[in-house]
């Protein structure tokens, strides 16, 4: 009878071993599926996705009898307008490349502008205005970082290689005399603008970005009263939050 009991016990051990092995395989399979799901959840912009959008900004200002430091009371008004459309394509998960174009227009008018330098020395500008048109073409690369498993919010860093220029004219009237300065500029630079994107529905998102890093090179050519000419070159590098480069826009993820 003893061999029979030993054989029965051996069958029980085999069944228990097979059951535990099957349970272990099932557990590993579930963990693998969860791991794949977590990896998939980290993809905010999948490969092959198109992103089109634009940012627009507009502001006006008006000053009456304004005074600041050495600037005596003066009157001023003007506006600033800027539009910047973009098109990018997802080369791989959470990485997109494309282009952006930017156009801006600024107008500022001054009247009765006095600089008080002391010792009876002052500079007066009356009936003065400056009009500027600027344009920039950029090649951009975007890296997206998901916030946990959220599919609605994400951070991004936009690296920009930009080339552009501007045209401006400054006209000053004093009595019957009118003086004007016409300027053209050419600019080249590299910048980084981090930001955050939030989806309002499945295809539309709101984006906010701000420039924090930039290296710029510029050259300006001026001609005054169609007689005098001058040239100026400049270069700059900075690592700071540029409040004037805050952009608010809308994008469509197709």
What do you see in this structure?
The protein is 16% helix and 71% strand. It has 254 residues and is α+β, with helices and mostly antiparallel strands. A hairpin with a 2-residue loop joins β2 (71-92) and β3 (95-111). The longest helix has 40 residues, at 2-41. It is elongated.
Strand-helix topology:
Layout: H1 2-41, E1 50-68, E2 71-92, E3 95-111, E4 113-118, E5 121-125, E6 128-146, E7 153-174, E8 177-199, E9 204-224, E10 228-253
Antiparallel strand pairs: 1-2, 1-10, 2-3, 3-6, 4-5, 6-7, 7-8, 8-9, 9-10
Short descriptors:
254 residues; alpha+beta; eight-stranded antiparallel β-barrel; 71% strand; disordered N terminus
What is the H-and-E element order?
A: HEEEEEEEEEE
Q: What is the assembly state of the chains in this entry?
A: single chain
Query: What is the structural class?
Result: alpha+beta
Q: In one word, what is the shape? A: elongated
Strand order of the largest sheet: 1-2-3-6-7-8-9-10
Number of helices: 1
Straight-line N-to-C gap: 76 Å
Number of strands: 10
Beta-strand level of the residues, as a percent range?
over 45%
Q: Mean pLDDT, as a whole number?
A: 77
Characterize the largest beta sheet: strand count, sense, and whether it forms a barrel.
8 strands, antiparallel, barrel
Helix content: 10-25%
Low-confidence stretches: 1-6, 34-40
